[in-house]
Structure formats: structure tokens, C-alpha cells
Sequence to fold (117 residues):
Amino acid sequence: MLSLERDPRKAEAWRANVEEAGLADWAELLEGDAKELLPEIDDVFDVVFVDAEKDDYETYFGLARAKVEPGALIVADNVISHDLADYVRARQGDPTLESVTVPLDSGLELSVVLRER
Fold:
């Protein structure tokens, strides 16, 4: 598992939680801005979880989309509570995805990649 975190306090909490869970050998944290870090990662992801500033969701989706293959899942958090209707419409209107809004808590948009763009 790979996590990206810009906020040093959240990174510190992440490390403590991962250590307490006994996952330190399994999980990795890269500190910095995901907009800079994601393009540098030479890997493919099976699952991507986006939880960021709402104005940046499209940017993060685009960066993540370049790192996934068919069958991958991209999950966006807070799509209801932060009124991310444009993000939701874009995902649900994309013929290369199967996307659905799950109204749990603050809302999740689950997007499965069906095929390459």
C-alpha cells in the first residue's frame, strides 16, 4: 500500500496508525504534494482513494487515471458533502468507466475502469 500525504501532522498520525496496526512492513508513505509525486511514480495501482481539496479532484483523478488499468477502482470521498456534482457527472458520463455514487456518510464516488481511454 502506498499513501501520499502533504500535511506533516497527518503523515505523523499515519505512521503511528500503521505501526500500531502492525503494517509498517506493508505500507509506505510518501510525503509531499500528490500533484508532484504521482507523475514520478513508476507503478500501476489497483485502487486509488482520493480525499483532497475539492477544487483539485479533477486534477487528482486525471493523475490517478494515468496510473491504473482496466479493472482498477478509483474512490472519491466527500462527493455529497462537498457538492462535487461536476466531478460525479464527469465520471458517470465517461464511457470508459462504470461509476456510481454511494450515499454513505459524506458520499463516495466509486469508478471502475472498464477500458483504456
Notes: The chain has a mean pLDDT of 95.
